Amino acid sequence: MDYSNSNSFPLIFLGSGSYLPQHVIKNIDLPAHLDTSDEWIRTRSGITQRHKSSSEETTSFMATQSLIKALDHAKIKATDLDAIIVATTTADHTFPSTAARVQANVKADKAFVFDIQAACSGFVYAYSMAENMVISGQAKHIAIIGAEHMTKIVDWNDRGTCVLFGDGAGAIIVSSNNQSNVNEKIKATSYLFSDGCGYDKLYVDPTIKTPEEKGAIVMDGKEIFKKAILKMGQAIEVVLEKNNISIEDIDYIIPHQANARIIKGIADRFNLPSEKVIVTVDVHANTSAASIPLALDVSLKNRTLKNNSTVLIVGMGAGITWGASLLRI
What we know:
Elements: E1 11-19, E2 23-26, H1 38-45, E3 49-52, H2 59-74, E4 83-87, H3 98-106, E5 112-116, H4 122-135, E6 141-149, H5 159-162, E7 167-176, E8 191-194, E9 202-205, E10 216-219, H6 221-242, E11 252-255, H7 260-269, H8 281-284, H9 291-301, E12 310-317, E13 321-328
Parallel strand pairs: 4-5, 4-6, 11-12
Antiparallel strand pairs: 1-7, 2-3, 6-7, 8-13, 9-10, 12-13
Helix pairs in contact: 2-3, 6-7
């Protein structure tokens, strides 16, 4: 396949949008009882601040706001959507899905909708689902959203986790590629992986009480750090090999924004120059499934990410889950 133009991709990118809560917590504003500092956090994670949702800024609210902006950018109506996929680990309710709330909010009455839960890999998993739905003819216009209210599931007494996470949402609109080369069989670019044996390395412990009594994140930081570089690196290699391209064919890579040191480890592994690696973890912190679409939208709007580019997205999350995809912006 020739991925230097959009004709070989199953999906056409139409537009993006994002939402960040108004309340920003800088490192210097963190509670004194955490016994931490701006220097300590920056050195270990690269994070300088994070956005924190109010009680009104629910996951479905943030997802809706990001979708409204994405629809405007794509210049299509909500009624044009055939499907809405929301990747989240912090749904408003056990059921119905966050996607159902979003559908009602934007009045996308022709769409079928569902949530997907793959933690920090969620957006990559959702993108893969969208590729296959288009290839199979199930849908033409699809909204893919990553939205998270992570600060409600952190223990604000645990400096090892609470300083790392933030809230936000990002959305993209994609469509089936009617311009694809009829002489080539268009295939999905995504590859997904999981290893359930790593379930206990990063999880929410329901016995830890938070202000909203949701339970709190427990993480084996050292193990997750090692796995993140290893597994995301492996996913990149598989996507390149299976799609018969090299890293030089990629204009930009958008890794899950977990930690600046993890992102640097991936960049070093593939000898990627800094201008090819999109980084927003410093100002967004780790927004789980929202991190990739947030980074994509913000970087596209501030022109860090250029149009007509081949982009590789890659993530790893709890489970453990990991995967990578290609898209043309």
